[in-house]
Amino acid sequence: MTPEQKKRFKYWQTRTLIGTMFGYALFYFLRKNFSLAMPGMEADLGISKTGLGIFLTLHGLVYGCSQLINGMFADRKNARYYMSIGLLLCALANFAFGFGEDVSYWITGVHQGVPFTNYLILFMGIMWVLNGLLQGAGFPPCARLLTHWIPPRELATKMSIWNTSHTVGAGAVIILCGYIMSHMGTDMSGNADVVAAIAANLHITPDDAEGMQRVMTSAAHVGAWRWCFWIPAGIAFIGSVALFMTLRDTPSSVGLPELEGTETASKAAASKQAQTAEAKAFIRKQVFRNPIMWILAFANFFVYTVRFAVLDWGPSLLSQSKGVSMTNAGWLVAMFEIAGTIGMLFAGWATDRWLKGRAHRTCVFCMLATAVFIALFWQLPPTTPVWVFFVVLCAAGFCIYGPQALIGIAAANQATKKAAATANGFKSLFGYLSTIVSGIGFGFVAQHFGWSYAYIVMIVMALVGMGILLLMWNAGADGYGQTQETPEK
Fold this sequence. Notes:
Layout: H1 3-29, H2 33-45, H3 49-74, H4 79-97, H5 100-108, H6 114-135, H7 139-149, H8 152-162, H9 164-183, H10 192-201, H11 209-219, H12 224-246, H13 263-268, H14 277-288, H15 291-321, H16 326-354, H17 359-379, H18 386-415, H19 420-433, H20 435-448, H21 451-470
Helix pairs in contact: 1-7, 1-9, 1-12, 2-9, 2-10, 2-12, 2-15, 3-6, 3-7, 3-19, 3-20, 4-6, 4-7, 4-12, 5-6, 7-19, 8-16, 8-18, 9-12, 9-16, 10-11, 15-16, 15-18, 15-19, 15-20, 15-21, 16-17, 16-18, 17-18, 17-21, 18-19, 20-21
């Protein structure tokens, strides 16, 4: 590149990095809002923990499949349109979800009873599954954009910076929704019928003083959970427009040359050739028939199980197993995310600095440390000062978010930029299959066996994930040296 081209490339690289970070953070606004809304939905609507777990699991399974499908499309489509339109549609689904009670009333003409509840759950289920399907338009376009704008030797560091969008988005929406759940809604604590209904929904008897305190807190904020969907949706509407105005697809779309060192993959992916049998054979070889990709995908299952267990169930887990208030619980989970951001950046830097881009080796150490800190958190009694909860949970977040980011980086580098979106969709499919365990599995365990067993499951999952990653200890940092080989027939 000429000096002028390098200057322009740096500008567009930075703009793409910031734009995708902002856009993907907003996708989190439209799916992690559910975690803070769950206690309100349980109290107001009587949906059990197992039922809420089913919502999480269905959303995760659909989202995982959507990541793979959208990844295969995103490798061949304009990422600017793909991502911004996907965000807009997710906002619409969230907005509709908040009107679930109204839709059920319009259909049945009543505000309670079996028909009302059935239509309510049906409508909400459809909207949340639809949201999961549309959420798949978030990460695959980012994988395409980043591998076109960032050279492989810098990808671990810069994609770790990009991955802070996960933690910024999840942390920000958790703080926002924590505030919503604590300060919004209608105060019905003086209505004996409402209080009795909430107590019945939570299976709390009048002689349970501690439980009735929870009931009165919920009664003071009836309907607040709806705003956990409406407010983030409004923010995302505005964000989708900003995203469309910010992004451009590839260097060539703004008159710049492709990245040095990736020319072979670029030529194979040029113009309409991305839809040829040769290109499809390349994807099969680098992704679906690549043993390293399968190891990364299976490891991702266990990483996401631990991560989602804290992120999705954190507010309920902290308030019910450690006696933490909802406001503090929201901040604790947000701090978990913030600590994860720092850990993610450190893991990416350490990978490039000391491990020569071998992200999978960093993940091994991180998973072991995660298991240790979760075990320590489990053993802390409810009387422990809140600041100790903060420190230990943040240490676990610092460790788990390294693998969450680095597995995606490793998948992108192993598949090369020609198949980066497909590779990340593939590993994400396994990551979101984890919601079978972290969603309905954790809900069932917590409801029938208690939170202690849920902690044990998290520890075991972290150790198994570490063992799987050890299988590829000696693997190389990327797959670009293989792209010149003749594709399989």
